[in-house]
């Protein structure tokens, strides 16, 4: 639904505002790398603007911090809707390595709603380009949550149906289900 | 500047190639030393929780559901892909993937959830004694994680000071 909305609302071009709320500038450098001719994100119509009032998309870098959370919220509210927020890097997506320190409040989604996450520390320029292309509907999502579990645990108390009495003893043997 | 130099400049401009990658349409091979996200293999994992105890971002949670089943959960939100878990895994059950295309609209998509069967003593049903209180201090408390809410639970309340400056941080207690 979000992708349909994106394709409908942002068909022409996305203007990107680049908000760093206390990151280490690693993600900033990678975002600027995306704007260089080598990766050339302008072929998708993406342009870096200086003011959040001109922007459709906010690229957030760095965690929400005590000193900048209010300014980040104000910058988000200054953007005209419809607006998208990308959390670039593991600081913006999850709080970063210093998630439990005094000055870090947590991921940016504690302050503003986040629509797309680009994990990485810092994410490669390809990853940022891929996230933008995902929002534009050019590519499909490649990750999915994996859950690996055993079908059955070979422990008698989890499978009481496999226990059978035989001559005063309790025999545990897996019964083949038909 | 003569007309000849302008002409050669124009000709060299015509010869210029194209440097822009056709990236999302055509995959780009990443360098060999690139580290993507860790991939956990359940069939090789012995559940030693060394990765959980040494993860700098504390993104691997380990919880014992019962005596035989241990759950290892990789959240990956603030993982910095440092590769320390893959380095110290004794069974090499963690490998770093070679893909960077991890962008998603749901952060739960990069989670990995492993249910590990911990084999126990055939005779008594358990293998290890409970750690003594001094040994518990050395552990970083991985047995007490709250998997449902994806949060760390500190066993001691010593992390909470009486300082007014830290009282507004929400901290979960046991």
What kind of sheet is the major sheet of chain A?
Answer: 5 strands, parallel
Number of domains of chain B: 1
- The termini of chain A sit apart by 42 Å
Q: Estimate the helix proportion of chain B, in percent.
A: 10-25%
* Overall CATH class of chain B: Alpha Beta
Biggest interface found: A-B, 49 and 46 residues
Percentage of residues in strands of chain A: 15-25%
Q: Helicity level of chain A, as a percent range? A: 25-40%
- Rounded mean pLDDT of chain A is 84
- The total tally of domains of chain A equals 1
Ranges of chain A where pLDDT stays below 50 over 5 or more residues in a row are none
Any overview of this molecule?
The complex is a heterodimer of chains A (178) and B (174). Helix content of chain A is 25%, strand content 21%. Chain A has 178 residues and is α/β, with parallel strands linked by helices. Chain A has one domain: Rossmann fold, CATH 3.40.50. In chain A, the strands form 3 sheets. In chain A, strands 2-1-3-5-7 form a 5-stranded parallel sheet, with helices on both faces. A two-stranded antiparallel ribbon of chain A has the order 4-6. In chain A, strands 9-10 form a two-stranded antiparallel ribbon. Chain A starts with a helix and ends in a 6-residue tail after the last strand. With 174 residues, chain B is an alpha+beta fold. Chain B has a single domain, classed as Alpha-Beta Plaits. The relative contact order of chain B is 0.16. Chains A and B meet through α4, β7, α5 and β8 of A and β5 of B.
What's the layout of helices and strands?
The complex is a heterodimer of chains A (178) and B (174).
Chain A: H1 2-9, E1 15-20, H2 26-34, E2 47-48, E3 57-61, E4 64-65, H3 69-78, E5 84-88, H4 89-94, E6 104-106, E7 116-118, H5 125-136, E8 146-148, E9 163-166, E10 169-172
Parallel strand pairs in A: 1-2, 1-3, 3-5, 5-7
Antiparallel strand pairs in A: 4-6, 9-10
Chain B: H1 3-15, E1 38-40, H2 50-54, E2 60-64, E3 69-74, H3 84-88, E4 94-96, E5 112-117, H4 133-138
Antiparallel strand pairs in B: 1-4, 2-3, 3-5
């Amino acid at each position: 639904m979000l992708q349909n909305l994106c394709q409908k609302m942002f068909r022409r071009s996305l203007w990107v505002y680049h908000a760093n709320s206390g990151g280490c500038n690693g993600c900033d450098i990678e975002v600027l790398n995306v704007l260089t001719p080598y990766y050339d994100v302008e072929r998708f119509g993406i342009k870096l603007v200086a003011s959040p009032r001109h922007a459709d998309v906010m690229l957030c870098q760095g965690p929400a911090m005590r000193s900048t959370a209010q300014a980040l919220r104000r910058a988000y509210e200054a953007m005209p809707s419809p607006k998208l927020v990308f959390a670039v890097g593991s600081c913006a997506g999850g709080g970063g390595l210093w998630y439990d320190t005094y000055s870090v409040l947590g991921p940016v989604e504690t302050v503003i709603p986040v629509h797309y996450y680009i994990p990485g520390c810092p994410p490669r320029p390809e990853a940022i380009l891929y996230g933008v292309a995902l929002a534009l509907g050019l590519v499909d999502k490649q990750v999915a949550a994996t859950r690996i579990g055993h079908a059955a645990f070979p422990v008698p108390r989890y499978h009481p149906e496999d226990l059978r009495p035989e001559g005063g003893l309790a025999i545990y043997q897996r019964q083949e289900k038909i | 500047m003569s007309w000849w130099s302008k002409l050669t400049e124009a000709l060299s401009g015509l010869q210029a190639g194209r440097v822009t990658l056709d990236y999302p349409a055509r995959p780009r091979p990443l360098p060999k030393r690139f580290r993507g996200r860790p991939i956990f293999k359940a069939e090789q994992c012995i559940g030693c929780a060394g990765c959980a105890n040494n993860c700098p971002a504390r993104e691997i949670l380990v919880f014992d559901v019962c005596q035989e089943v241990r759950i290892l959960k990789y959240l990956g939100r603030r993982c910095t892909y440092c590769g320390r878990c893959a380095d110290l895994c004794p069974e090499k059950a963690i490998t770093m993937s070679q893909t960077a295309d991890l962008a998603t609209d749901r952060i739960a998509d990069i989670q990995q959830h492993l249910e590990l069967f911990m084999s126990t003593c055939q005779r008594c049903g358990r293998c290890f004694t409970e750690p003594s209180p001094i040994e518990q201090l050395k552990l970083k408390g991985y047995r007490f994680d709250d998997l449902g809410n994806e949060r760390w639970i500190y066993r001691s309340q010593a992390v909470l000071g009486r300082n007014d400056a830290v009282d507004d941080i929400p901290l979960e207690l046991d």
